[in-house]
Specification:
Blueprint lengths: L2 E9 L2 E10 L4 H13 L4 E12 L1 H14 L5 E5 L3 H10 L6 E3 L2 H7 L2
Parallel strand pairs: 2-3, 3-4, 4-5
Antiparallel strand pairs: 1-2
Helix pairs in contact: 1-2
């Protein structure tokens, strides 16, 4: 299975979770665990980087929505990095492009967050 996850802390309360490969029913639980861990460590701004992701499914969307629900009470936000048209289209079709700010590059996301 082609999947990898890495987490980087960029400063107090800001984390980047980079996903690569396919994020689906089988790999999303690992992503969810990582997301909950950074939120539990006091993350206020979480950037999920889909730059190296080839596929996401509804399970992934559920993890992201759950992350937003956990961050909002603390005035936190979840942003996405994605330039793959096939993946951004999923957010548009589901209306989730209105829930998440989607940046084309990690640099742009980092400069706008925090």
């Amino acid at each position: 299975m082609n999947f990898d996850i890495s987490t980087e802390q960029l400063g107090e309360g800001t984390y980047v979770i980079a996903l690569s490969g396919e994020v689906d029913l089988y790999t999303a639980p690992e992503f969810k665990q990582q997301l909950l861990e950074v939120i539990g460590n006091g993350a206020k701004n979480v950037i999920v980087d889909f730059s190296s992701t080839t596929f996401i499914d509804s399970t992934t969307l559920g993890v992201l929505v759950g992350g937003v629900k956990r961050l909002r009470p603390n005035d936190g936000q979840l942003s996405l990095v994605c330039s793959d048209r096939n993946i951004t289209k999923i957010f548009e079709i589901t209306g989730l492009d209105r829930v998440f700010t989607i940046y084309p590059t990690r640099e742009e996301a980092v400069s706008q967050v925090g």
